[in-house]
């Protein structure tokens, strides 16, 4: 802008040596930061997957290497995508608001060549923002949708002020009238739920439903320029530091392997070895299978293990755990004690896939029948029919009480 004005006024612009030295240095610093970010960003999902397998193996390297050998990479990525799809709208909308606020409040400090926040804001097209809002509306829980509405209206108001500074009527409608109408509509719909959350001492839920509609009117315009760079960059660094921790905590609770119940009937055969475990014994050596031993239980007079699966008089038992793989010789299961068990295929009587247990809701608040902990995507999808669970998924043998 300054160069154009100098050219049109006929005054030659004097370029000093310091200008030529500083500008490439600034560009090099921003490009280096972007290169480091693009290099480290793909490693974060890989790190999450490795940590999840390490946790699933109970910090046993042999078990972890076995899981890496048999677990499908596509299954890992699918679980990662489903569990963390909500993070994309958080990143795009949060950094979009902070970047546009910086550009509007302190335009002299908005330098895409020096700041990653400014660079990301300048290079993010509008359709990405729209897609992030739509994805957030489908994947965020109901109690977070008022925050999504707040972020979306902030982005719209800041963008309108930047692109149309000479149209005060449009700015007034987008910055004042629209947020006010959205707040009135939100409180009309969410009012009973806010009161119910307050009566049930669910203060966090009440705050998430009540505060964002009113806060929409606070950040539809610029803030003082002297505090804008510090505030926006400080909040950006805070979000960048906290969000990976939250994503990791969420993903470490996601199941990666199907839960199955395997009914086993031990059979006398010298060619069939009994089940073995890859978990190390308390003495530090791995337990090795022996062809002369049989599972302890009523069949061979041994005492039944109170922590193990129940056994019938003929030695039948149910092994409940995560199904790793089925090979030509054995069925590999990671049981509930994080022990890998190799079950000979000749011993497997039957197996059933057990559904994942539904999450226990922490809140009893709902909005017109819509629980605040459910997403719109789950609410629109058809429900699975309620059927009686298979007794084997409870670790019990069929017909045995």
Q: What's the arrangement of secondary structure elements?
A:
Blueprint: H1 2-9, H2 17-40, H3 43-56, H4 61-70, H5 73-84, H6 87-105, H7 116-123, H8 126-139, H9 145-163, H10 168-199, H11 203-215, H12 228-251, E1 259-264, E2 317-326, E3 330-335, E4 340-344, E5 348-353, E6 366-367, E7 370-371, H13 376-380
Antiparallel strand pairs: 1-2, 1-5, 2-3, 3-4, 6-7
Helix pairs in contact: 6-7, 6-8, 6-9, 6-12, 9-10, 9-11, 10-11
Description:
The radius of gyration is 30 Å and the shape is elongated. The longest helix is centred in the middle third of the chain and has 32 residues, at 168-199. α9 runs parallel beside α11. The protein has 13 helices and 7 strands. A hairpin with a 3-residue loop joins β2 (317-326) and β3. Residues 1-27 and 269-308 have low confidence and may be disordered. With 401 residues, the protein is α+β, with helices and mostly antiparallel strands. The strands form 2 sheets. It has a 5-stranded antiparallel β-sheet. The chain has a two-stranded antiparallel ribbon with strand order 6-7.
Query: Residue ranges: pLDDT <50 for 5 or more in a row?
Result: 1-27, 269-308
**End-to-end CA span:** 83 Å
Shape category: elongated
DSSP summary: helix tally = 13
Order of helices and strands: HHHHHHHHHHHHEEEEEEEH
Percent helix among the residues? Answer: 40-55%
Structural class: alpha+beta
Spatial sequence of strands, sheet with the most strands: 4-3-2-1-5
- Number of E-state strands: 7
What amount of the residues lies in strands?
5-15%
